[in-house]
Design brief:
With 166 residues, this protein is α/β, with parallel strands linked by helices. It has a single domain, classed as Aconitase, domain 4 (Alpha-Beta Barrel). 36% of the residues lie in helices and 19% in strands. The protein has a 7-stranded mixed β-sheet. It is globular and about 45 Å long.
Length: 166
């Protein structure tokens, strides 16, 4: 699975309150969550992000509360993959549970630039800057996790597999 898009760049320790502020966690409509994504640190994000764009961040992305709204808001805004130096453990799990792939690559996180174009191959763990031609690597997403992503997350994956057996 390949993803090509514009890079949105964030730093270290971006917590779930910065992704989706607590005042919006009672919102359940995905498109409404997308409109409030990063509203306090990058108000222009939701109106300028395009489907297929890529979020790149530093260390410990998604730290803070175990707010499931955070990866959902990011995915619903149009972001198709997040590349970071590292992720908070609960955010990592929540993201894959809703079908949002994550890749860890310190080199890519450090060197990719905001506004640049990137091509990401999830199966190969290959990240290519289309601006500079530099190629970075990450651990490939295993086949079974790619199926979760393709199916739309864990719940959708289980429903699909259960229906196929019936």
């Amino acid at each position: 699975m390949s993803i090509e898009g514009k890079v949105w760049k964030f730093g270290d320790n971006v917590d779930t309150d910065l992704i989706i502020p607590a005042r919006y966690i009672n919102v359940s409509e995905p498109s409404e969550l997308a409109r409030t994504c990063f509203i306090d640190i990058m108000p222009e994000f939701s109106s300028n992000v395009s489907p297929g764009d890529v979020l790149v961040a530093g260390r410990n992305f998604g730290c803070g509360s175990s707010r499931e709204h955070a990866p959902l808001a990011i995915r619903e805004s149009g972001i198709r993959v997040i590349i970071a130096n590292s992720f908070a453990r609960i955010f990592y799990r929540n993201a894959f549970n809703i079908g949002l792939p994550l890749l860890e690559s310190a080199e890519a996180a450090d060197q990719l630039q905001a506004g640049g174009r990137v091509l990401v191959d999830l199966a190969a763990g290959r990240i290519e800057s289309l601006d500079t031609g530099k190629v970075f690597s990450a651990r490939p997403i295993p086949d079974f996790m790619q199926k979760l992503i393709t199916d739309g997350g864990l719940v959708a994956h289980i429903r699909k597999r259960t229906t196929m057996r019936s």
